[in-house]
Design brief:
Helices cover 41% and strands 16% of the residues. The strands form two sheets. A seven-stranded parallel beta sheet has the order 3-2-1-4-5-6-7, with helices on both faces. Strands 10-9-8-11-12-13 form a six-stranded parallel beta sheet, with helices on both faces. Helix 1 crosses helix 16 and helix 12 packs across helix 15 (342-350). The protein is built from 16 helices and 13 strands. The chain has 369 residues and is of the alpha/beta class. The longest helix is centred in the last third of the chain and has 16 residues, at 352-367.
């Protein structure tokens, strides 16, 4: 069975981590799926090398920074014609656009990684984001199947599209990707336990300004906890420099984007997010795999990570006051002997192996209809 995956680029994001896990898990088994991958933009980083090592000549990159050009559309159609895939599997809005340039006879599916309108408007503004959301709905209605990464995303789209939609929860594998990572020990010498960590984009949708301001107040008189921040703002490369200056005194350490987050997760005691909206947060699942406690805003997508009452995930109402109270409560109750339960639930529900098997089951279901 031939499946052609389509992504905007090979840059490390939640989208590419899902695709990476599918290809890797397939390579470790009997390879029921013959994967090929098209990246709509070219990049040169460790992710590209990883994909090339797994796929070789079945990895295709379309040159140029712009997502949509006539030459790219022509090359995309030519690749599809040469491969003759049984299924073309699109990931993210930019990739979904290319489904419009294919015949209705081609089997096309997409993974919905977010809630559409809410996410787009947060990132691109009300006007552009609103238009993107309407286009996305029209595209989804032309596909054979849409796969939601969470039940929250599924429920959102069930109301507005006619296409069949199912849920396959995101999964991760901490053992794939970049292995040789040097942790910046000098920057981490003054950490105060319990150590929190946030990993992800530094933008308004992730609500990071409220997160950092809360830690500033928590540590205003005395540093009672440290926060490691992994990530940057894709729209503003200077933002992280501003954050470093602003929060230097408050034990918030900004390390930027890294190739492998797991060595940093292993230093921390808990992972925290004040995000306003998610698909199903890959970064939080990565933290679960490292057996960290989670302190999360009470959005529905975060709540889907808590499978049982005794699981060490704590929620707060998404405002500064409640976030500060939740952080202080966690710090006061934490002890060095504490052990999280989240790795157990990660293995039961959120591993990439489980995710991969569900995707293969769905592929087979689609092609045998």
């Amino acid at each position: 069975m031939k499946v052609l995956l389509v992504v905007p680029s090979l840059k490390k994001t939640g989208v590419t981590e899902v695709v990476k896990s599918l290809i890797y898990e397939n390579s470790q088994r009997d390879q029921k799926v013959e994967y090929s991958l098209i990246s709509l933009k070219s990049v040169d980083d460790n992710n590209k090398r990883f994909f090339y090592n797994l796929l070789g000549e079945k990895l295709y990159e379309l040159n140029g920074e712009r997502i949509l050009t006539l030459s790219k559309i022509f090359r995309f159609r030519k690749i599809v014609k040469n491969i003759k895939p049984d299924i073309i599997h699109f990931h993210s809005f930019e990739a979904d656009l290319y489904s419009c340039f294919l015949s209705s006879k081609v089997t096309k599916i997409s993974t919905a990684h977010n809630n559409g309108k809410e996410d787009f408007q947060s990132s691109y503004g009300k006007l552009v984001g609103g238009v993107m959301a309407k286009v996305q709905v029209k595209i989804f209605n032309r596909l054979n199947t849409v796969i939601a990464v969470s039940n929250t995303v599924k429920q959102h789209f069930q109301k507005i599209i006619s296409t069949r939609i199912i849920t396959i929860l995101n999964g991760v594998n901490p053992n794939i990707g970049e292995k040789k990572v040097i942790v910046q020990r000098d920057a981490l010498q003054k950490l105060v336990r319990p150590v929190g960590i946030y990993s992800g984009n530094l933008n308004s949708r992730k609500n990071v300004d409220v997160l950092f301001e809360s830690y500033k107040e928590v540590n205003s008189t005395k540093n009672i906890s440290s926060l490691i921040v992994i990530g940057d703002d894709p729209q503003d490369s200077h933002k992280i420099i501003e954050y470093r200056k602003k929060y230097k005194k408050y034990n918030i350490i900004f390390l930027g984007r890294v190739n492998n987050v797991y060595p940093y997760l292993n230093i921390a005691d808990y992972w925290i997010s004040a995000s306003k909206n998610e698909g199903l947060p890959m970064a939080a699942i990565e933290a679960m795999s490292a057996n960290l406690d989670l302190v999360l805003s009470d959005i529905p997508q975060h709540k889907e990570l808590k499978m049982f009452q005794g699981q060490t995930i704590y929620f707060f109402k998404n405002n500064k006051k409640c976030l500060m109270q939740s952080v202080k409560r966690y710090i006061n109750l934490w002890t060095p002997k504490h052990t999280s339960t989240n790795n157990y639930y990660y293995n039961q529900f959120f591993s990439s192996e489980i995710m991969y098997k569900k995707y293969v089951h769905e592929y087979i279901n689609i092609v045998t209809k």
